[in-house]
Design goal:
binds zinc ion, nine-stranded mixed β-sheet, 337 residues, 10 helices, 26% helix
């Protein structure tokens, strides 16, 4: 299985060691800033993926360590150039770095507000972030940090197309990550929703599963039928019946096993399937590929891996681009006068 997958990869993909992915005009570039989940891991930071299409940049999710990986990939230029974040759902492993990027991007030079789209409850969370950091913002503005860019703007979105600009179209769809009764499978009736996204740009497309269990009627299937890349979360079941294994497997009711994801890939046949949001984070690429009975092109994402989706799908590694030298003149308006 592994041999076959690797063969397919080498025939389809060109491995490149690159600095930050530079998108050709009609390609979509992805940088995996974090491929893990809630558990701390120094190898797999929390879920976050940078999307670049033409001159547009945005993030899908803002997990722990996102700000640091962005800085690692592209220095202050990248850190201060992003003003759009899409949130799949409101778990902390998808949202905790929103304040980190919103505030440090502004502090180090971003002059536009940060805009966040997410499911019901997103505006409320962002309003609370603004309230929580009001003292910090007032303090810095009082000592001369520019006032443009400190706003945090949020939109609660419903399934459907919610963003269309400069050829970039983004569609949200419901996924199945709401809590259920383990015994009956019934929804526990919590309010809110959890989303996946599809991004289309000049004939290229990428689908993000968000966090989801797998079902035969998953919306992911219909939204991925002609997708170039389908990025799917995965959780490997813990073996045995020990208390530890049982505890680890509780979350399987809201996540997808490799066998279940293989069935999704089998139905949708993307040009490339990708695992990200990997539970537990210490899983290796070999372990996941060997557990997945699927004969199409499949890749396990690693932190700082890049994908450029064009006529070919090119794999690379981000890092070392941009500058890590900060000059105060970038941010303090008065010094420029
Ligand atoms: Zn998650």
């Amino acid at each position: 299985m592994l041999r076959r997958t690797l063969h397919l990869l080498t025939s389809l993909l060109i491995l490149q060691f690159a600095h930050v992915a530079s998108a050709a005009d009609d390609s979509i570039s992805l940088t995996f800033l974090g491929t893990g989940a809630p558990r701390p891991s120094l190898d797999r930071y929390g879920p976050s993926i940078l999307v670049e299409a033409g001159s547009q940049r945005l993030l899908v999710d803002a997990g722990p360590g996102m700000r640091e990986r962005l800085f690692q990939a592209g220095g202050f230029e990248l850190l201060t150039d992003i003003n759009l974040i899409l949130i799949t759902h409101l778990h902390f492993d998808h949202t905790i770095s929103v304040p980190g990027l919103w505030l440090s991007g502004w502090l180090f030079g971003r002059k536009s507000p940060m805009t966040v789209y997410g499911p019901e409850g997103t505006s409320n969370m962002m309003n609370n972030f603004e309230a929580a950091y009001a003292w910090d913002i007032n303090y810095r503005e009082a000592v001369g940090v520019h006032e443009q860019g400190s706003d945090l703007i949020a939109y609660d979105i419903e399934p459907g197309v919610f963003y269309e600009k400069n050829g970039l179209k983004i569609t949200a769809f419901n996924v199945e990550h709401m809590p259920i009764d383990m015994n009956t499978g019934d929804l526990l009736g919590m309010e809110g929703s959890t989303l996946g996204f599809r991004i289309d740009y000049k004939g290229r497309s990428v689908v993000f599963s968000g966090d989801t269990r797998s079902t035969a009627s998953s919306n992911i299937i219909q939204h991925s039928m002609d997708a170039d890349v389908l990025i799917h979360e995965v959780q490997m079941p813990a073996p045995g019946n020990s208390p530890e294994a049982q505890l680890a497997n509780v979350s399987l009711s809201v996540h997808s096993t490799p066998a279940q994801v293989a069935a999704i890939f089998e139905q949708t046949r993307p040009r490339l399937g990708v695992y990200s949001h990997i539970i537990p984070p210490e899983l290796t690429s070999d372990q996941l590929l060997n557990a997945t009975d699927y004969d199409g092109p499949l890749l396990v994402a690693e932190d700082l891996m890049t994908l450029t989706i064009g006529d070919e799908i090119v794999v690379g590694i981000a890092g070392g681009a941009g500058t890590n030298i900060f000059t105060e003149a970038d941010v303090v308006d008065q010094l420029q006068d």
